[in-house]
Batch of 4 targets.
Target 1
Amino acid sequence: MFFNLSLLALVVSQFASITYGSPTSSTADVKNIDGVFPRAPTTFKHPGVLVNKAQLDFIKGKVNTQQQPWYDAYQAMLADPLASATRSPSPFATVACGSGSMNPGDGCHEEREDALAAYANALAWYISGIQSYANKAISYMNAWANSLKAHTASNAPLQSGWSAASWSRAAEIIRYSNAGWSPADITKFENLFRNVYLPILIPGSNQNGNWELVMMEAAIGIAVFLNDGATYDKAMTKFLGRVPAYIYLTSDGSCPKAAPGSGLTSCSQIDNFWYGQTSYPENGIAQETCRDFVHVGYGISSISHVAETAKIQGSPSDLWTTDVGTRVRYALGFHTRYLLGQSVPSWLCGGSLNLSAGERDFQITEVGYNALNGRQGIAMTNTGTVTSDNRPARGNLLFVGWETLTHANNPAF
């Protein structure tokens, strides 16, 4: 797409508030994203959300010749209850999700898990060519397109992001693989995205950073499916503002950056938002590190997903080679070393970290590790160990699923 002068001026003005520090001696290899504007591609590539045709064909070839780790990962996906042939959609007209998907918790698990089930069946269809998998994926998407009218309660933006992130992946694969999804049903699903999801996603959020990151991941996936350049630009603008406010580099200064529009104007306010962290001597600390590693994993996962989709689309650039990829690399390395048992220094989170269930709760490394180590050849020893230990990576019943299958050692592009 082409920008008129007024739109270009708007984009530039939005970026003016995002300052990227010059690399210091401790981050001499940092590439920043100065001059990278959130331009949508002139022509969208399909399938083009998280995985493209070349990647899917690579997976299909590996599974069909029973090569590892893809074959075992595929079998694990098929054994997941979400991929069951006897499982049925459970659509709601209104999904009402309070904090923790409770009080209320109407349709929260059902929506997220049906979206992931559609994605699992879409992958199974592409890999196997068995029509029943395509039919099952279509049944989930049609059921929700014919039912869902609104998201309500406090977690509505997050719930919408989690669900739409998976829906867009499934929809892209099914629509662009001759799976038999009718034009009329595709139109209904497009309208679901436009009328129910995008209005709540595009405004973004000033909650913990994982919220806005998955919301923009979902909005970008929807934009690809809709061939909607304006939505892609808006979501990418927010994403590029949020990433440096979520993962810290020492080149950022004495304290982390604030996301545009966050209202955080001082280091003390930012420290409070970062769960009381007041010292930033290393690269890779995340906004939710002192909260727990599960939520950090959500944030890193969404950043990785968007970077992969942007690489597929070729726009705004290969984000893996920019400041975005650098931040993911340091965040993965920083957090995996503590998962592997390194002692926690006193300056970090008061000397105590909530690792949740340890490595098994950090199954979000495949996409970033493949992009940075596999395709770029960057040494990432601790991330590689955690990635290998977690294979085959399972889903999290929110928006992450089967990434050993899709991204382990996948060089295709």
Target 2
Amino acid sequence: MYLPRTLISHLYQHLMRTNHSQSPPVLILVSLEPDALCACRILTALFRRDYIPHKIQPVSGYNDLANAGEQLVQPMKIQSGGSGGIVVCLGVGGMVDVSTVLGLDNISDGEDPSGGVQVWLIDARRPWNLGNVFAGRPEDALQPVNGNARSRASDVVDGQIQSSYKPGQGGVIVYDDGDIDEEMASEREAFLSLLKMPNVEDDGEVLDDSDGASETAASVNGERRSKKRKSWSDRDVDDHEEEDEENYRPRQRRR
């Protein structure tokens, strides 16, 4: 799901209202790029001004991101003994399914796979991963997909967060800089159409087309052999015809 520019301060204001001395620190995963480092400097200045505890973890690629998810993010889950919290991804994670990379998609016994961990995704690289933008709700993984997948809740419509949305529910939230609403209408329709499609159960059978392939190969080889036999027989017939013409050629009279 994504946060439109008109509600850009919605999540941060909720964080300031609910922050207290026992709140878990906000985890910032920042890419080692100039834009991401500058954004991290601005964000940490806001956190210090508003007395919001935080910690920074630099990541240099998707391997570091996966390691950070295993060592830092997953222990924050309620199932792992944590209390949830907020993870901010700056300049990393926009092109992949960040829930899978961070290990927030493991479903067990109908529990919330995010474990109360909410990811704020801010990335300037394109293309967007459509699962981050138009999905990302933790309850989407728990509820079966039906014909009403287009709008399951009034606070999130077609992946767009509405003003009635209550933060703290976990999941992935993408900060929209304007291009999602303006330029990704066709991608949204296609993604939602895929969600409406029924799941095809895989019974583990492997389609083996070796028999058909062998029959086809045999027929082709047979045709080739028949063509070869036909060509040799035609050559033999031509040789016999030439011999018959020489044998039956009329004799010329001697002068």
Target 3
Amino acid sequence: MSHNQFHHYIPRFILQTFSEDFMLKTEGTPTVFIPGIPKILSGGTRRNRGGNRGGNTGGNSGGNKQRIDYPIKIYQVLDQTTTLNGISRAYGVENIYRDISADDCMEFEKLLARLEGSSAKFVRRIWLGEDLSLTRAELVELKRFLVIMAYRGKNRRSQYFDNNFDMITRLSILKHMHNNNISRIQDVWFDNLKWLIKTPCDDIVTEFLRAQDHEPKDPFAVIKGYAGPIHVAELLDFGHMVTHYVCIWQAEEGSEFILSEGCFGSFEGDMGVNFHRFFVVSPKYAIVLVNRLYMWGDMETLPLRKSWFSELHANPEVVYTKRPPPVNVTLNDCTPTDVFKYQRIVVPKQKVYLVNSIQLDARRDYLTYKSSASMYKSLRYYDKIKDKLFYHQYDYSILRRQLFADMNRTHRS
């Protein structure tokens, strides 16, 4: 590529909601700058309060229009400090498509920007308390966006660039490279990404079902037997996630969700089965993909532990275009114009802290929070349960003391 670009793996429109300077406004409302808060614009030369210089970040949206470089709190895991950083340089990667042709990169970014734009409209309706209805076609594209952003994230991308796979997966990738004349393992990552965003969802699902024709009860047989345009592990992951159903979670008053570099697609599960995939879209809201087996009560028949969140489900109301509504729904009953109506599920504080604990135990480099009080309570909750529930059991005592001091300072002022 001819010039440096910074690409966000957590969308910028979500990052801004974690800034104390951000104000949600309805359509048509002009931007209002609060007196005393600096007007920090990406593309300008003014430094933000975290010390980073704004720059034209490229990102998913393109264009040269100036945007506010909202400062957010970022806890640096390595040096155990919290700084204010502008969102223009937060949660992203420089030159994510290095060694990819400029034309290929530009085409992909346009497709991703279109997908992000349609998903952002629905997320905005979540924030504003508006009606949460999606057509079947819109729902599929929302799921595609969530899955692609999870795949495009730092954790999954680093697996390919660091060649960090178990033996079975590595052998299946080498087989895929041989079948598709790919010379570098890093190129498999971008080829997968490009195929997922350019291929119609119906065709992806068809390919997913074709892959499962190889002994569907034996995942290793699927990995060994499949040959196609995408690496089989990513095809299976995409197929399972798009067949999950959507729930909208709202944090109980007084609690908030947090961000980490893996918060788009972090999960709860057991024995390789995902129960829930979490996509935090603001401090107050998360989109959750719930395993479809819960919809029919089949999850309880499997020899797995009980989910920590199984009471936080609500099936959407579905309005079918073909009338009357079918009793036993088949694919022939479904049309792209069917409407799914969702409700916001209020998540009790303890469960919000539990979702945050999943992020706290899975983080690698960064954490972001808006409310110091909610973050402090999440850390205390994590400390209380980590020995029984989590693998890494990190020590956040320094951050906890920092937060406690910040809250006391705010209280005194």
Target 4
Amino acid sequence: MTFNPTGTRTGNKILRQRLKGPSVASYYPRRAATIKDLTKLYPDLETWDEDEEERLEFLAYKKARGKGAPKKKSSAAESKKILGKRRKVPAPAAPAAHKA
């Protein structure tokens, strides 16, 4: 038992326990090399990543339909210009006074 006259929570119980990281890490299989890893290691090697090609094709399809990601800003001034265009919404017309 440790000296703790005020009874504050010290976390000693947790710190005494065995570390869980190694046992959790050993539960999962080791990560296998992917095509992306091979491309990084050997940039001059010509590789074919079917999943990446499919992803790029899908993005091109979405962009053609107008559903793709918006363009990134190249400068702060340009982003203000784009936001200014978006925010300009015409004010609703005031209702005409009704004469009785």
